[in-house]
Amino acid sequence: xxxxxxxxxxxxxxxxxxxxxxxxxxxxxxxxxxxxxxxxxxxxxxxxxxxxxxxxxxxxxxxxxxxxxxxxxxxxxxxxxxxxxxxxxxxxxxxxxxxxxxxxxxxxxxxxxxxxxxxxxxxxxxxxxxxxxxxxxxxxxxxxxxxxxxxxxxxxxxxxxxxxxxxxxxxxxxxxxxxxxxxxxxxxxxxxxxxxxxxxxxxxxxxxxxxxxxxxxxxxxxxxxxxxxxxxxxxxxxxxxxxx
Length: 244
Hints:
Elements: H1 2-5, E1 15-19, E2 22-26, E3 32-35, E4 39-49, H2 60-74, E5 84-87, E6 91-94, E7 98-110, E8 113-123, H3 133-144, H4 153-174, H5 180-186, E9 193-196, E10 203-209, E11 215-219, E12 223-227, E13 232-235, E14 240-243
Parallel strand pairs: 9-14
Antiparallel strand pairs: 1-4, 2-3, 4-8, 5-6, 6-7, 7-8, 9-10, 10-11, 11-12, 13-14
Helix pairs in contact: 2-4
């Protein structure tokens, strides 16, 4: 639906499709997702000029969206310490323990404009099949003696889009350095040690993200190198980076 509409509307007009349930959701590498009631599910259309800071670094968009989802919760007064985090390149996590959302970005370049379709989904009030944001809020209330209210999917979709708009504006003005300090505040990888190529492969340490949004790792004796998201699978459970 949105793929057909996006070229028919004026560029300055926003376009988003929101689903209450999803039976044919797509993930990276051909993964298929079933999304029950209680998830925030949407596809957003954006246009980005090719000759702009973000247009020259399109892979960064998935990081900005992941950060916007986390910020949609953690920027609410009282909710700053809810353990919602980002995992490179496109996942939303509870601490570094469990995935509760993800982002998938498709881009089409027409003349000098990128048409970006951003699909993002995250668990808000559905405890199954993994965990949801309202579970984290309930857990926080029990541990801290607070009375934070549960959140709704429509509220968090609206907040995510609003935060994303602000992050894009900052990126266009200041480039990666305008948003990376904030991204690192919420990501799960700081100082993590990983193995390259296999479980017996050389040890490397995650350093950060380069100017184009690719993961940087430091292999002993070899210096820092960038790892491309589309050519590598980062297995959080085994701390392993594997070229496909």
